[in-house]
Amino acid sequence: MTLARQLGAAALAVALAACAPRYSGRPPLEFQDLPYAGPDGKAWPVATRELPETARAYGMARPPKVAYVELGKGGPKGTLLFVHGLGSYLKFWWFQLDAFAADGWHVVALDLPGYGRSEKPASFPYTMEAMADAARELARGLGAERPVLVGHSMGAQVALSWAIRYPEDVRALVLTSPAGFETFSARERAWFEQAYSTALVKSVPEYGIWGTVAQANFARFRPELRWLVEERVRLARAAAFDAYAYAQVRSVQGLARNDFVRQSLGRVTAPALIVFGEQDRLIPNPFLHGGFPREVFEVGHRGLAGSRLVGLAGCGHSVQLDCPREYGEAVKGFLAGVGQ
Questions:
Q1: Running DSSP on this structure, what letter comes out for residue 180?
Q2: Which parts of 166-240 fold into alpha helices (H)?
Q3: What is the dihedral of CA 57, 58, 62, 64, to 10 degrees?
Q4: Which of 75, 94, 312, 317 is disulfide-compatible with 106, CB 3.0–4.6 A?
């Protein structure tokens, strides 16, 4: 991490500590009770679907169930499939789902296995390829042919895994602060496996959650986004939190094993947009690598022939929440040039 990034993060941490509300005294929140609604408070319709093909492919005793939201079915512009990042869930597309459905898109957003309202089976492998297969089976089951894949962070690496292995199934890629381009050595992967544990996930205190959610992911965190912290604090006492922590740890291991994605970018045939925040504090990894976000995302830009690279000034890692207007303009501009 550069000195400027360190100073910016430290300043934000001090500001948050001074004015942050406390949520640990509020009732526990179960994953199945997560309030899925947009900024206007209107609840999204949540459904679940079993994935028998994924179960067979990975030797699971029974099909996992994933939760999803579907809006604007029959939208004339085609399907946008939204895939969230590590530790999050479909609500992290808070500003986008209703907006793109209103713009004529068939919108589908899922909770990946292990996250949100989806089941959290220990038998699921939590690799990027397995999660891509789960998302692909859901899309095919909903009749969403050749969707545009919109992935954030880990979700973008999942989207890339899909587009590399099944290039004919993808119309376009919107890679939002994407994981998958950064190089991790064998020693660094071993460090991840040793340092990132379920005990670590379960032991994060409330002030640490403020830091990891609001400080690390945002450059413009503001009161309307405090639900991100509140829900995470209250979920820590959910009955399924141990299973969620396990899924997250296994996902981190899968993220670090990204050689297949990084070395196979030339197999992607779909047009791609890489959109990121210039003040991303998570990519490059702040514990292992120095440098600037743009340096990492340019690796992907060079590897994806004909891709478009857009950096948003003053925006952080969760750019779709941090800078929704600028993000929406960048994505809509790209989609306007994508053929049916």
A1: S
A2: 186-195, 198-203, 206-209, 216-217, 227-235
A3: -90
A4: 75
- The single residue listed with the structure tokens 């001090």 is 14
Q: Which tokens belong to 339? A: 């053929």
Residue pair 13/211 in contact by the 8 Å Cβ criterion: yes
Exposure of 318 in the CB half-sphere (CA atoms within 13 A) = 28
Torsion-angle region of 276 (φ positive above 0: left; ψ -120 to 50: alpha; else: beta): beta
What's the sign of the alpha-carbon dihedral 250, 207, 229, 279?
Answer: negative
* Alpha-carbon span 150 to 306, nearest angstrom: 17
Q: How far apart are CA 77 and CA 58, in angstroms?
A: 34
Q: Contact at 8 Å (CB) between 126 and 87?
A: no
| Residue pLDDT, tens place only, 151-163 | 999 999 999 999 9
pTM summary value? 0.94
Among the listed residues 247, 244, 262, the one whose alpha carbon sits nearest the alpha carbon of residue 157? 262
Q: Are strands 148-152 and 79-83 parallel, antiparallel or unpaired?
A: parallel
The whole-number average pLDDT for the span 126-149 is 97
